[in-house]
């Protein structure tokens, strides 16, 4: 009986230790990757994303979009407004939910 409990506790201990080791190894790998230098392809990719982000903020919308893009965008918005009604279709809708009113039934 005591031997079974010891074996059961040792298996629980082993599983807990293995989980902790896996988590620590995974975290160590992430920290190690952040500290080492990126390879050239990753660096180029991140540079292009950052460049696009700054251009997008400066342009206030899509980068290098010509007048034909704006024309198509306006036509699409007009079609959607005709199909789904009024409102600003460029913004996420705001939902307002009212709390239900529950009435206690007499016993």
Automatic annotation (TrEMBL):
Location relative to the cell: Mitochondrion inner membrane
A single GO cellular-component term on record: mitochondrial inner membrane
Gene3D superfamilies in UniProt: Mitochondrial ATP synthase-coupling factor 6
GO BP term, example: proton motive force-driven ATP synthesis
Pfam families listed in its UniProt record: ATP-synt_F6
Keywords: CF(0), Hydrogen ion transport, Ion transport, Membrane, Mitochondrion, Mitochondrion inner membrane, Transport
GO molecular function: proton transmembrane transporter activity
InterPro entries linked to this entry: ATP_synth_f6_mt, ATP_synth_f6_sf_mt
Keyword tRNA-binding carried by entry: no
Source superkingdom: Eukaryota
Keyword Ion transport listed: yes
Subunit: Component of the ATP synthase complex composed at least of ATP5F1A/subunit alpha, ATP5F1B/subunit beta, ATP5MC1/subunit c (homooctomer), MT-ATP6/subunit a, MT-ATP8/subunit 8, ATP5ME/subunit e, ATP5MF/subunit f, ATP5MG/subunit g, ATP5MK/subunit k, ATP5MJ/subunit j, ATP5F1C/subunit gamma, ATP5F1D/subunit delta, ATP5F1E/subunit epsilon, ATP5PF/subunit F6, ATP5PB/subunit b, ATP5PD/subunit d, ATP5PO/subunit OSCP.
Similarity comment: family membership: Belongs to the eukaryotic ATPase subunit F6 family.
Its job: Subunit F6, of the mitochondrial membrane ATP synthase complex (F(1)F(0) ATP synthase or Complex V) that produces ATP from ADP in the presence of a proton gradient across the membrane which is generated by electron transport complexes of the respiratory chain. ATP synthase complex consist of a soluble F(1) head domain - the catalytic core - and a membrane F(1) domain - the membrane proton channel. These two domains are linked by a central stalk rotating inside the F(1) region and a stationary peripheral stalk.
Name of protein: ATP synthase peripheral stalk subunit F6, mitochondrial
Organism per entry: Piprites chloris (Wing-barred manakin)
Gene name per UniProt: Atp5j
């Amino acid at each position: 009986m005591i031997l079974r409990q010891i074996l059961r506790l040792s298996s629980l201990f082993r599983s807990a230790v293995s989980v902790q080791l896996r988590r620590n190894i995974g975290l160590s790998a992430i920290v190690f990757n952040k500290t080492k230098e990126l390879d050239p392809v990753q660096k180029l990719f991140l540079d292009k994303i950052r460049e696009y982000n700054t251009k997008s903020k400066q342009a206030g919308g899509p980068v290098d979009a010509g007048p034909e893009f704006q024309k198509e965008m306006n036509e699409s918005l007009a079609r959607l407004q005709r199909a789904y009604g009024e409102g600003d279709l460029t913004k996420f809708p705001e939902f307002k939910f009212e709390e239900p009113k529950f009435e206690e039934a007499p016993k």
